[in-house]
Amino acid sequence: DMPAAMAPEQEAHLRAFVEAGGGVVSLHHAIAGRTGWRWWWEEVIGGRYLEAPEGGRPASTYKHDVELTVRVAAEHPVTAGLTDFRILDETYKGMWISPKVTVLLTTHEATSDGPVVWVSPYPKARVVTIQLGHGREAHLHPSYRRLVRNAVLWAARRTP
Predict the structure, then answer these.
(1) How many CA atoms lie within 13 A of 57 on its CB side?
(2) Beta bridge partners of 106
(3) 71 within 8 A of 103, measured Cβ to Cβ
(4) 8 A C-beta contact, residue 117 and residue 148
(5) For the chain (length 160 residues), average pLDDT per consecutive 10?
(6) How many helices, marked H, and strands, marked E, lie in the chain?
(7) Which helix (H) or strand (E) holds 48?
(8) Is 93 within 8 Å of 111 (Cβ atoms)?
């Protein structure tokens, strides 16, 4: 979910997996995890939820049970078959998001940073970050389910 750190041997295994081209699908709270591992959040995931103020930036915020419109921002195998949709979910604002990511889905919801799904530019692996997906309503939403399925298939190099 969102552990602050991993054991060094776990980090080594995960790094070796990513360096070997393994696929990663980072879901929702995972953007608030492993915050002490700069390589992970800056290079691989391409974003980070700030649980406390840092470097002159305020802490990120969240809001539960927001009805938001999600818009397709780019054609990509992860967005295949998706159109704009409305979903009840949790939003995050004030995150650090790498300017190098490719944003796939976005929202204009004021309690969100905008990007809600992106692909990392990490050259050795296929990495998708999905900020959506807090609760039951989101998990049962057909567009969310298709999104996660597409992301897993793409990350596994089995493009839908």
Answers:
(1) 15
(2) 71, 115
(3) no
(4) no
(5) 84 96 95 92 96 94 97 98 98 97 98 98 95 96 98 91
(6) 4, 8
(7) strand 47-48
(8) yes
> What distance in Å separates the CA atoms of residue 89 and residue 103, rounded to the nearest whole number?
19
Contact 94, 48 (CB under 8 A): no
Strands 47-48 and 85-93: unpaired
Q: Please, what sign has the CA dihedral across residues 145, 37, 53, 95?
A: negative
| Enclosing H/E stretch for 142 | helix 142-155
Both tokens of residue 55?
């470097």
Nearest to 149 by CA among 66, 92, 55, 82: 82
In this structure, what token pair is assigned to residue 124?
């050795």
Distance of CA 135 to the CA centre of its chain: 15
Write the DSSP assignment of 83-107 as a string of letters.
--EEEEEEEEES-EE-TTSEEEEE-
